[in-house]
Amino acid sequence: MTPGLSSAADIHSDAASSSPSCWKCGNTIHPSDEIFFCKCGVIMAPRPNMDHFQLFNLEKSFNLNEESLSQKFKDLQRQLHPDKFTQKSETEQQYSADQSSQVNKAYTTLIKPLSRGLYLLELSGDPIDETTDNTNLDPDFLMEIMEINEDLAETDSMEKVNAIRKRNQQVLQRLTTDISMAFDKGDISEARKLLIHLKYYDNIAGKIKELERKEFED
Ligand SMILES: [Zn+2]
Fold first, then answer.
1. What is the CA(30)–ligand 1 centre distance, in A?
2. When you count CB atoms within 10 A of the terminal residue's CB, does the N or C end of the chain come out lower?
3. Residue 57: left if φ>0, alpha if ψ -120 to 50, beta else—which one?
C-alpha cells in the first residue's frame, strides 16, 4: 500500500486479511504490536477479533489485579478519549470513538467478578443460559435466597439492612474465592454453578444498595 494514500475504506478490507496495515503510513501491523497506536503515532482502527482480556494485554484468567486494571483503563481512556481528537481527521475521530467504546466495554465487563466470570464462561463456549440454568437450582439454595429477600422486604430498620449486607458481603467474598479456585483448576462446570449462585447474591447486593440509597435520600 502506498503510504499516505490509504482511505478509511481500505482499513476494513485490510482488517479482514491476515496482515492488516496502518491506515496512515501503511506499515504492516503484527499481532504483537501495540494495539491502539501505530509506530508512526496515529490512532489505529480497532483490531478485529480481540477479546476483552487481549485488549488490556491480560491473561484470560478470573484472577486479575483489579487495581492495575483500573489504572490501565484510566491511562487508555485518557489516550483514546474523543476530546483529544477534535482537531484531527474524521478517520481519527471515528477510531478514537470506536477504540474508547471498546475499551469501556471491556473494562466494565472485566472489573466485576460476576461479569468477568460470566464472560470467561462465554469464552469457554459454555455460557449461562438463563432459561435452563435457573430451573435446575438446588431447592435449599432457592429457599435461602427467598428468605433473604423476604427479610429485606420486611426490614424496618437500617440496622437490620446493615446486618444483611454484612452477611451478604461475606457470601459474595467466599463465592468469589471458590469461583477463582474452580477456574484455576479448569473446573468450568463448578465455576458455572457457583457463578449462578453469585448472580443471585449480587442481585441481593443491588437491592441492599437501593435501600441504602433511599434511606440516604429521606
Ligand atoms: Zn502508521
1. 12
2. C
3. left
